[in-house]
């Protein structure tokens, strides 16, 4: 994959992932959590995949020079996001499990 294709794909994913979370920034009225949790779970998994690709493929060649500090900040932010996503996925899975029981 060329750099241009990778950059375009990553940019598109940012918008797609943001759209999932924007849609649910306020839960839809009258819609039970069991209806919207699967979409949010898919969004979180897409975000985790996106972060992984950034950290393993995109960031390493950028760590040298002027981008070193912004990359370090993003790595810190990614770590915090990852921990929060794990917490949310647990909550979502628990909600789905309770609704089935």
Q: Notable features of this structure?
A:
single chain; 101 residues; mainly alpha; 3 helices; 0% strand; elongated
| Rounded mean pLDDT score | 85
Shape: elongated
Note poorly predicted spans: none
How many individual β-strands? 0
What is the H/E order?
HHH
The number of helical runs is 3
Strand content: under 5%
Could you outline the blueprint of secondary structure elements for this entry?
Layout: H1 3-23, H2 33-58, H3 68-100
Please describe what this structure looks like:
It is a single chain. The chain has helices at 3-23, 33-58, 68-100. It has 101 residues and is mostly helical. The chain is elongated, with a radius of gyration of 16 Å.
Give a concise summary.
With 101 residues, this protein is mostly helical. It contains three helices and no strands.
């Amino acid at each position: 994959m060329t750099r241009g294709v990778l950059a375009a794909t990553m940019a598109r994913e940012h918008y797609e992932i943001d759209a999932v979370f924007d849609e649910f920034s306020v839960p839809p009225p009258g819609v039970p959590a069991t209806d919207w949790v699967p979409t949010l779970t898919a969004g979180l998994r897409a975000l985790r995949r996106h972060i992984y690709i950034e950290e393993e493929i995109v960031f390493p060649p950028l760590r040298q020079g002027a981008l070193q500090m912004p990359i370090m900040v993003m790595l810190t932010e990614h770590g915090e996001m990852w921990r929060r996503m794990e917490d949310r996925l647990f909550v979502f899975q628990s909600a789905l499990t309770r609704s089935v029981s």
